## 1
Amino acid sequence: MIKERLFTPGPTDVPAEVLTEMARPMFHHRTPRFKAMFAEVNEGLKKLFRTSSNVLTLAGSGTAGMEAAIVTCMPRGKKVLVANGGKFGERWAKVARVYGMDVDEVKVQWGTAISPDLVAEKVKTGQYGAVIVVHSETSTATATDVQALGRITGPTDTLLMVDGITSVGALPLETDAWGLDIVASGSQKAMMLPPGLANVAVSEKAWKAAAAVKPQAFYLDLKAYRKSIADSDTPYTPAVSLIRGMKVALDMIHKIGIEKVWARTALLAKATRTAAEAIGLKVYSSQPSDSVTGIWYPQGIDDAFRKALEKTYGCSVAGGQDDIKGKVFRVSHMGYVDPLDTIGLIAATEYTLAKLGVKVKIGAGVAAATAVLRDWE
Amino acid sequence: MIKERLFTPGPTDVPAEVLTEMARPMFHHRTPRFKAMFAEVNEGLKKLFRTSSNVLTLAGSGTAGMEAAIVTCMPRGKKVLVANGGKFGERWAKVARVYGMDVDEVKVQWGTAISPDLVAEKVKTGQYGAVIVVHSETSTATATDVQALGRITGPTDTLLMVDGITSVGALPLETDAWGLDIVASGSQKAMMLPPGLANVAVSEKAWKAAAAVKPQAFYLDLKAYRKSIADSDTPYTPAVSLIRGMKVALDMIHKIGIEKVWARTALLAKATRTAAEAIGLKVYSSQPSDSVTGIWYPQGIDDAFRKALEKTYGCSVAGGQDDIKGKVFRVSHMGYVDPLDTIGLIAATEYTLAKLGVKVKIGAGVAAATAVLRDWE
């Protein structure tokens, strides 16, 4: 028996408390019972997203949530600025184009984030209806400073749409205080659930913009979800079992406290980066996200590392995509993963590299990580 | 303790075998393990839909599946005929309009289905890109003869798009043999799963039509799903736990054999209709679906019946919507429900009506149903 652990940046491990809740018998969703639960989930989501607005819940992947925000709220007849610094930024540009939007796709070097100065310059022209950015670009393990961008768009008519799929519940994020107009997330990341739910927070400014938009979608039109949630309901059949699991997961998160969860996540990331250096490995990103760490393979190593790591030690990590395929591995710090898991992964990394012929001082990474994590609480 | 039973036409009860499978630890979806499972699910779905084409799986509700089919495949520049004989027919007309389609919405009296002659007459004009019908209209417990409609559209360029959300796995349905170009289903009906998955079967004729369509959606563009499923994969993160449950549910269905499941469902419906008559109640529809039976409340009774039935006997049934709200109740025969459950529900119905002051000969309905179900296997 090998104990299996997911360090992939989604899906992440789901706590047994959540799994067993979802395994309870089905009940009908058009009932006071569902509404009471859904209202509690909404309150839990508001605390997670740090917003006083209702947070919408869709049956679908995170992509569905971001697309819904874009098609519902993006002011038409204006440009949309999309920061493309990885696979997900690239995707939002495609989505915007499908709906005939005038897309200004800014290609950002992988492993870096869009410069706030560039965004300020563009927004200043008054030509932009929205700026779309990825808070934590999973494919490059890189974070964007969305707080700085919120300061730019806040005083203007331009909306700031944030893909928070691998940031909500992991990185510090203040939807209201930072002036983020859209924040979308997916259930299989820091929210400790299986995939299948998307959540979207929408600011009043974004709803105002949406009011002027002629619907271009039905299932993904957020206006219907807004209307329903006022009565703690959903417009189409909700994914009841996943929402049920979400209730338990949110309760677990809020029992710890979201600020402490953010601090823990950051500490796991710091420990992982520190361990990588101690092992002699380089961190991939120049603006690393604390929800996922990208690490260059040492010379002579490729994705055989990931296979060996999983086979022998039960630890799944992600590889690189596109240009960095076979050159990088990525480790998640989101959700149901703690310092002891992380220290264990670092040990498994050392063992695996040594087996693959890399000269590794066994224990160096583990010791470095353990020192960083000493004051964990 | 009251044992709870769902007789609602979705969600339906989920077998413990399926619930516990979904409660097993998460694993990553970009793996050979997922692909192997997803390939098996696809094979099981093909047998269920009676098609040799791949059946696409989306994270979303049944509405997402139908919308995806409409936006992806509906030939543009032609009319779309939508048979609106209930809440779901009404919805597909709305969906088609959102995408700017020229909708010919034929209002059909509730409790009846569109006449094949009328469809033939319209299709003959050559003006129609597609006909959209609901196989089993849940809101009115009424079935449409989609086989007859397939004979009409089959030899033409017109697509036949079938909402099979409460029919797939319940009513006899032959996607290929009947020339159905689209069949969409939802997981929380005859497929014995929680809500959250939509499946769509697409004919070669529909793919040919789709090839000429400029995409108007991203997440709901079926072309991406078609491309991925060729490699037993999905374009966006799949709802892994639900798909895992689907594997178990499909295995359970195919172990019995789909034709036997259809026959069982039909027998449950017949027993329920026969019992209703024996109790002195009238069946609502003039073309009743075998997946759900609508029954008029006797004089003086309203939805207080449903509440009492649930409170005292743990049996959930659905009410009526719109014009028949408070006048009708609806009983599902789909999925994980058997003759003994159904006989029990009829007993509970008798008891509840009697308690509410209706003169009922206790046992008459039960005896009638039991006689119908005698040769059940």
Note: Chain A touches chain B through 50 residues (CB under 8 Å).
## 2
Amino acid sequence: MFFQFIDILGTIAFAISGALIAMKKQMDLFGVLIIAFVTAAGGGTLRDVMIGVEPVSWMRNMTFVYIVIGSATFAVIFRKQISYLLKSLFLFDTIGIALYTVVGIETGLVAGLHPVVCIAMGTMTACFGGVLRDILCNEIPVVFRKEIYATACILGGFTYFILLHFFSDKNILFIIAGLVVIVVRLVAVIFKISLPSIYNKEELQEDSEE
Amino acid sequence: MFFQFIDILGTIAFAISGALIAMKKQMDLFGVLIIAFVTAAGGGTLRDVMIGVEPVSWMRNMTFVYIVIGSATFAVIFRKQISYLLKSLFLFDTIGIALYTVVGIETGLVAGLHPVVCIAMGTMTACFGGVLRDILCNEIPVVFRKEIYATACILGGFTYFILLHFFSDKNILFIIAGLVVIVVRLVAVIFKISLPSIYNKEELQEDSEE
Amino acid sequence: MFFQFIDILGTIAFAISGALIAMKKQMDLFGVLIIAFVTAAGGGTLRDVMIGVEPVSWMRNMTFVYIVIGSATFAVIFRKQISYLLKSLFLFDTIGIALYTVVGIETGLVAGLHPVVCIAMGTMTACFGGVLRDILCNEIPVVFRKEIYATACILGGFTYFILLHFFSDKNILFIIAGLVVIVVRLVAVIFKISLPSIYNKEELQEDSEE
């Protein structure tokens, strides 16, 4: 019940964020719906297809399908008012990422994959919906440029596999890993922390002059 | 026999339209061939991969492969003359979309998926070849911006599942659903109907000023 | 042993080339790592997913995963010095393409696919990592514009299936096919040969004036 509630919050946040970006690109109703769907389902779909879980998960989950359609419609109708919701959306989104990471890790574990690959699957589940959204909108994926996002997922995944040596209750492990994702992301956003840049000033200038 | 004939017409139309767009982008022979192939096979490939029909359908259908290669070659050689064919191409394309929609729905039904997901699979089969083509050509997919296209597929799909309560002969249902797709698209194009815009004038101006 | 050594060289070359392009686009550490990975694993992943080999090959091959992570890290640290290595990289890359082509053909054969589809799978394995890399970097894939690359793979594939009528030792066939890929590409680059353009001068001017 509790997990399902969180799952729905996360899906809503992903779908609305996708719809908002699609509307910025002046897409029509169909485009907005597809981008909302891809943002919410894209990461998990890629993961399922690569692992071989088919039909992919959302095809058997009508609740998910209806929530995405509902969220996209909501975003279209209330797009002027939604700016008041951005903070709640950010919070839902962060919770969604944490949950998606954990779900991705779990799917990898069930398929018997190596911990490093499981962490990759968790990160992919959480981040690649946004990557596909950005590609469909003809942008370089934002997560490849400013990525507190992905790092949080990776750290959450590492936490899970390190604690696995000390705890055996999976549910507790998943909750702790999810909390790590949430805390890392919130701290990074609040204190404006990003990965140390790998470019020095000259390189950055060169490119902006190009 | 009749269906196969329609299938071939649709494939030719998709492949040629892909080749023409690739040539506009100054791609070389290899690029033109790949874009033609992706336009014709992309939607069905995505559908098969997500549902778990593997190897994907076209890999077992050499007729399809040769028709695409032939159509792309034809488009390269006669690209100057092809403008005289554009009206026939549009008609073939519309017939192709109708058939692809029906094939997609059928594939979903065989996999035991929910009607809403089947309609999504039909629309994906018909429209996502074009989406992948546009991504490979570095454009925002045209179907997300002006989409009489996708709406026609969705309406055809709904028609199928509504009539399913009254008829039992699948072949008749498929033909009716296909005709709905064709009629909706032709009417929309002839009378220049598009979805009601979700943006008001101010929003459109704002963005064009950006 | 020998094949494994070649495989590792190819993977390193693909991963480093991906990382270099990601750094040109000012991506952060996570972006560089993902682009390196997609460049090295993308073609094979697409092939596996379309044929139905799941979980996809690299998920069971931790050596591959660690080599990509190591190569990307190396490229980030020594990006200033790497220009001295470009020639060796080009050589490794060419060897990598040859090997990937052969691996792709072999995977198609095991799945019982038609020779033409096997050649397509070989070419996809060798070239579509680069295609996905370019899409993620928001560029029109370079292989669709100047493609000595793909033609070499296709010719290597044809050689394989033609010689199949005369030889029965698969290992020898694979080595010959791989050598054809390498020689075609080297000759094309050294003598600056490209496919005959399908556009005449006027068409090229028109477009550059646009």
Note: Chain B has one domain: 2-209.
